[in-house]
Amino acid sequence: MDWGLIISNLVHDTIVFSTALIFASLGGLYSERSGVVNIALEGMMIIGAFTGAVLTYAFQDSLGPLAPWIGFILAGVAGAIFALPHAVASVTFKADQTVSGVALNFLAAGLSVYLTKIIFNGAGQTTTLSSVFTKWSIPVLHDIPYLGHAIFEAYPTSFLAFIAVFFTWYLIFKTPFGLRLRAVGEHPRAADTVGINVKKMRYTAVMISGALAALGGATISLTTTSNFSHNTVSGQGFIAIAALIFGKWHPAGAMGAALFFGVAQAIKSLVQIFGLTKYIPTEFIFMLPYVLTILVMAGLVGRSSAPAALGKPYDTGSR
Amino acid sequence: MNKVIAVFTKESFLVPVVAIILGLLTGAIAMLAGGFNPIQAYMALIEKVFGSAYNFGETIRQITPLIFTGLAVAFAFRTGLFNIGAEGQFIVGMIAATTVGVSFDLPAYIHAPLAVIAGAVAGGLWGSIAGYLKAARGVNEVITSIMLNWVALYLANWVMNAFFIPTGQQRSEMIKESSMITITWLSQMFDSARLHWGTLIAVLAAIFFYVILWKTKSGYELRAVGLNPHASEYAGMNVNRNVVKAMFIGGMFAGIGGACEILGVFHYQAIMTAQPGYGFDGIAVALIGGNTPLGVVLAAILFGILTFGAAGMKFGAGVPVELIRVVIASVIFFVAAHGIVKIFVKPILQKKKEGGH
User: Fold this and answer.
1) How many Å lie between the alpha carbon of B48 and the closest alpha carbon of chain A?
2) Does A93 reach chain B within 8 Å, measured CB to CB?
3) Which of A95, A108, A214, B45 has its CA 20 to 30 A from that of B136?
């Protein structure tokens, strides 16, 4: 048995499965850093997966390989728009942010399948897409034994996700915009006093959040599943939230956590390939990511450092 | 002062009612956008529910689990916890009831109650996992209970596959007749709609909910912790214990709900490919019901009618059943963002005020 090859495959699969989680947890990071709880990542991912699949379907005959790109980008736009009600409820109307997020999750689950059935004549899922993202190989580097296949052969979305991590880190910690975003999430009153528009910052953050989470959703339907159905996203939005908390609301941390959960999923397919299902029931393997999430969260006792104003609506009149 | 109270009680009633109307309107807009006739669809929904004795009985069957999960979510809310895990607690209640129902041979007056209690305990324990992790490790109960929902789903499938499903089948053996809680005579009155004692248990559970929270010392503590954990701590209450207790009792409600589905409706447990959804609907039910027992029962009736009648919309107007999820989502949204609803309610309240003078 070639262990180098096995590990190389494992890393390769981990990156495939982590990509969506990285996008979504980065999305959560913008929103939560600005002080708005975003449990609606799941719903935003569903909207992204749906929009990405449907638009790719619409353009695949005329545009061919370009279609998934159109689908992917417009999924981001759709996600930003879909996130708007969450911002309206939590920022303008000071609603309970968790409940508003739950409402959006419900809405996404219902609306996406409703529209799918209308578009595809009553079928609960889109037809299998003929044109989806194909893996890119970085010239020269992908020829490195083992490492090349593991890291330098991946879907374009994966490369984009890692770029987004770096970009987010730079934006949040190295630019005035990032400073303002963090200020609004830590101490909105102080931020308000120095002239930062708290509401505008939070609206912006929630919409960026929706866009990124939707890109994560589109990643799933345009790389791994090649279609959209009601269980395309199946709880990954919630795992992304766990990754965000596990990663302590830091882009690199969130990426690390997302990779960790990605390993759990990659192992799932590995176990199936090796026929280990004879010894471990498949149900337990399916449970793995969720059990790991609980264990990881339980191990984090009091060490998570959420933004101070997270979940608190900002009221200009209060002190 | 009395007038102020009167206005508030009016508002607590008006906000959910207006939210429901706005939700139905949102659904209507979605239907128009999809090229359907919303009036025809809603009429078909009503006709489906009230059109025949069988369907009316089945609507009651649909309402029952929603009361249980609604109570499960509402009870935890009263202690300041968001029990999004009613789904999982419902599922483990199903597992426990199936296990007891299939495995034992007992006289009916022991077997059926034992199966219900098993469901209650299983649901309670499952709920208290999230409660314990919140209390002892400070983990957000929303995340853990969502994860526990998935774990419960796969656990249920594993237990069924490993112990109760004959090879090559997709569902467990039937539970023993002695553990069934079907009400045969009532069922016959409603053209064999699947009516069962669970409905009565649900109403009793709502009364239990009221008594324990508002008539006992323990309930006072639970509510105090929900309103202000710091003050409760200072007053000498054990906040952590109350958190676990609230999640246990909440989980119990959901667990009984799951048990009744097995014992009263299906009499077997099938392999699940997705969450049954009663737990998530319970969130909506609890919110619309204002987390009060009477409110939960009324909201469950509404949601039972909507979700069961959705099949009629499909049949009568060609509207995909998922449309009703859009309606429910909008109702939750408008209840959460009641500021939006108040814009619509304000003119009504003002008119009343003027009329009073």
Assistant:
1) 20
2) yes
3) A95
Q: What is the pLDDT of residue A99?
A: 86
Q: Which CATH code of 3.90.1520, 3.20.20, 1.10.3470, 3.40.50 fits the domain covering A3-298? A: 1.10.3470
CA distances from B195 to B177, B180, B233 (A): 15, 11, 45
ipTM rounded to 2 decimals: 0.86
Q: Which residues of B333-352 are buried (b: 16+ CB within 10 A; e: fewer)?
A: bbbbbbebbeeebeeeeeee
Q: What are the contacts of A148-151 at 24+ separation with CB within 8 A?
A: A149/A8, A149/A9, A149/A12, A150/A7, A150/A8, A150/A9, A150/A11, A150/A12, A150/A15, A151/A11, A151/A12, A151/A15
> Quick one: CA dihedral A88, A89, A94, A98, positive or negative?
negative
Of residues B143, B155, B325, nearest to A242 (C-beta): B143
- Percent of chain A residues topping a pLDDT of 90: 59
**Alpha helices of chain A — where are they, by DSSP H?**
3-33, 41-63, 67-87, 97-119, 147-151, 156-174, 176-186, 188-193, 198-219, 236-246, 251-273, 282-298
pLDDT in tens, B97-125: 999 999 999 998 999 999 999 999 999 99
- Residues forming a β-bridge with A99: none
User: Over the stretch B260-285, which tens digit does the pLDDT of each residue have?
Assistant: 999 999 999 999 888 888 888 898 89
Distance CA A143, CA A137 (A): 9
What pLDDT sits at residue B301? 95
From the list A89, A105, A298, the residue facing B133 with the nearest CB is A298
**pLDDT grade for A261, boundaries at 50, 70 and 90:** confident
Which of B157, B327, B330, B332 to substitute to test the interface with A, most A CBs within 10 Å? B332
Q: Is the dihedral of CA B198, B199, B200, B204 positive or negative?
A: positive
The residues pairing with A154 across neighbouring beta strands, listed in sequence order, are: A136
